[in-house]
Amino acid sequence: MPFTANRQFKKAPRLFVEAKDMHYTTDDGRKVLDGTAGLWCVNAGHRRPKIVEAIARQAHELDYAPAFQMGHPKAFELAARLTNLTPPGLDKVFYTNSGSESVETALKIAIAYHNARGHGSRTRLIGRERGYHGVNFGGISVGGIVPNRKVFGSLLTGVDHMRHTHDLARNAYSRGQPEHGAELADDLERIVALHDASTIAAVIVEPVAGSTGVLIPPKGYLQRLREICDKHGILLIFDEVITGFGRLGSPFAAEHFDVTPDMMVTAKGLTNGIIPMGAVFVRNEIHDAFMHGPEHLIELFHGYTYSGNPMAAAAGLATLETYQEEGLLQRGAELEDYWADAIHSLRDCPHVIDTRNIGLIGAIELEPIDGQPTRRAFSAFLDAFESNILIRTTGDIIALSPPLIIEKAHIDELFETLRAVLKRLD
Ligand SMILES: Cc1ncc(COP(=O)(O)O)c(C=O)c1O
Fold first, then answer.
1. What pTM was computed for the model?
2. Which of 176, 266, 267, 315 has the fewest CB atoms within 10 Å distance of its CB?
3. Which has the closest alpha carbon to 273: 6, 43, 17?
4. How many Cβ atoms from other residues are within 10 Å of residue 426's Cβ?
5. 155-200: pLDDT as tens digits
6. Is 241 in the pocket of ligand 1 (CB under 6 A)?
7. From the alpha carbon of 276, which atom of ligand 1 is closest?
C-alpha cells in the first residue's frame, strides 16, 4: 500500500465503502467527516451528481481516443476552460495523469525549452528542502523530504536545493502568511553564485508546501523568488498540485499571492479526484519556442497514453462547472477567518507547538515523542478515525484540507473532535 504502515494496516484495516458530500462511510457503517478532501483532491465534495453523470455519459459516447497524433474535442474544450482560470499568459496546457507526472513534464519542458532556444547549458534544476513534488525520479530529486529520497540511489544529477522557510522560532502561531523569512529567497542567489545562472534551467517550489506539513510562504518570499528568477533568466515553476482549484480561495495560488510563474503543475482538484488527471500550464512563449522546423515533425517527444483521456476530460469539465456554479473556487476566502479561528483555538491543547492556516488549509504541529518521531501524530490519526473524522498526518504534523463545500457546523465538529483527540494523546 502506498505511503502506508502496511503491517499495522493489515492488522486493523480502515476501509471506506461509500462517500457523499462531506462524509465517508466505513465498512462497519460509520459516517466519517472528511477533513482532508480525500488526499487534497475532492475539492467539491464526494460523488457530486454532475461529475458522476458526465463520466457515465462519456463512457457511453467515446471511451478512449489515442493521445498521439489524434485528439477529441473535450480535451480542447477543457484546455480552453482551464486557461480562463489561469493567470494571463499561461495559456498552453499539457495533460498528464497525476501530480508526479505533471512535475516530470514541467522539469523536462524547462530543460527542452532552453535547449530549443540555443541555451543547452541550462540543465540544472533547483528545488527546496522539505519540498514534495511526487514520487518519480525528477520529483524526488528536486524534492526535499528525506525518507522519500534516501534509499533510492543517486537520483538526478545537476540538482540543488534552497533552504526551506519553516521557522517556528520566529513565526510560530502565525495567522496566514508568516511575517519573517522573505530573505530566505536570497538563498537562490547563493546557488546562482555557485553554479552560474547559465547552467540553471528552473526553480520549482510549492507556493504552500503541503505534504511536508503545511509550510506557508513568508510575506514577500514568492515575490522575491520571482524577481531573482527574472534577473537570471531562470524559469519559475509553481507546483500547484494541492493549491490549485480553490484551496486558497482563488483558482490558483499564483493569483492568491499575485506572483505569476512560468509554469504551473496541477492535478488532484482538476477532476475532483474522481479520475486521475494532471495538467501543466506553460507560458505561451515556452510553447512557441518548440513550434519551429518542418511541420510533419513532432515538436516535443513526451506524452502519456492517457494524456487528455476522454473520461478524465469529461470529469474535468463537469468539475469546473460544479466549482463555478457553487462558487467553490472563492469559498476558501469566505471561510478563511472562521477556519483560522478554529485552528488557532487548539493552540492550548497538550503537545501543540504550532498552529497555522491559510485559505482552507490548516496545520497543528505536535512535539514529537522523544526518540519516536511521527508516533504521536499517528496515534492522533488513529484516534481521530475511531472518532469519525479523517485527518492526515505527516511527521508530527496534522494537516487539514477539507472539501470546499464544508459548512461552519462541520468545522465546529471537526475541531471539537480534534480537541478531544489531542487531550487524550500521550
Ligand atoms: C505539491 C505536490 N506535488 C506533487 C504531488 C504528487 O501528486 P500524485 O500523488 O498525484 O502523483 C503531490 C501529492 O500530494 C503534491 O502535494
1. 0.98
2. 176
3. 43
4. 8
5. 999 999 999 999 999 999 999 999 999 999 999 999 999 999 999 9
6. yes
7. 10
